[in-house]
Amino acid sequence: VSNFKIIESTLREGEQFANAFFDTKTKIAIARALDAFGVEYIELTSPAASEQSRIDCEAICNLGLKAKILTHIRCHMDDARIAVETGVDGVDVVIGTSSFLREFSHGKDMSYITKTAIEVITFVKSKGIEVRFSSEDSFRSDLVDLLSIYQTVDKIGVNRVGIADTVGCANPRQVYELVRTLRGVLLPTHTPPSKREPHTLIHVRPYGPSSPSYSLPAAILGIGERVGITPLGGLIACLYAANPEYVKSKYNLPMLREIENLVAEAVEVNVPFMNPITGYCAFTHKAGIHAKAILNNPSTYEILKPEDFGLTRYVSIGHRLTGWNAVKSRVEQLGLQLTDEEVKDATAKIKELADVRTQSMDDVDSLLRVYHSGIQSGEL
Ligand code: HCA
Prior knowledge:
This protein is 43% helix and 13% strand. It is built from 14 helices and ten strands. The strands form two sheets. It has an eight-stranded parallel β-barrel with strand order 1-2-3-4-5-6-7-8, surrounded by six helices. Strands 9-10 form a two-stranded parallel sheet. The longest helix has 17 residues, at 110-126.
């Protein structure tokens, strides 16, 4: 897996999170941090949303970041005219195509959508700016409508197309099928295969299958409208599991925790305990059988190496599920000399106490030291 680019949308989708209010300084801090992490694209709120949004969009474009700056607009010439003046590298254009959105949101039919999409895309392209076209609520849209609109925009030469599971109704199989069908319709228009550029990237929200070339949207901690979007950490965890060396070389992984803390503070939420990678117990091993295997070889129960993310693993031993191998490792760390039989005996004592209440590491260490002195003095 190496045919992907990340579209980081904390500053667009994330601003649609109920708690989010990003002032200019915070937006700049987040944009700089994402750029230092190494995401390929940073997506910003539409400059047509408000005057300050427009000013902030320009300010971020002027930072000279390595990441390409995108903004996200309605499929409307009013928005497109404002967007192209901000200095963005690309414009993500979206319009609802499901009957729900056509009837109850913008009220336009497919022929109007097609006509406007052609106008907007042609205009943005004429300014030498990248353009992506997305159908909102793709999975509740008519397949024939979708294929027809995608073929149309592909012929004009969009850089990417997006499909959005806006309400979260699609299962992975449906996403796979739609992406496959879309590829079948779009790729044959670009020949010959040897010269085939990743011309039209397929932008998939929220799932990210591989090949031919995908842009994967995400936001820090998954913040966004309603329950949000794929969390950047979760996406990175999946990509790393598939191709660790590539992902390590591409992104500054130890920065993940710092960016999550920055955003968590800005939107006043805690980093969830079960957060991928940085959740406080993501690398804590507890049950005796796991602890033993982890101490022999961490790959037994870890697909991610904590050290690649600037994190450390922790083997918890002060509880009733503990095992003597994990206790032995602690005994060695403390520099105590005990035989295996003695460690097993000390483990039984830890379990006895832990049946009453969980023992802290300090409690366990004191017990081991006292036990060790007892052995040495011949009292035990
Ligand atoms: C939105 C909706 C969107 C757009 C996705 C896209 C969605 O908040 O504007 O532009 O590809 O999920 O439908 O996030």
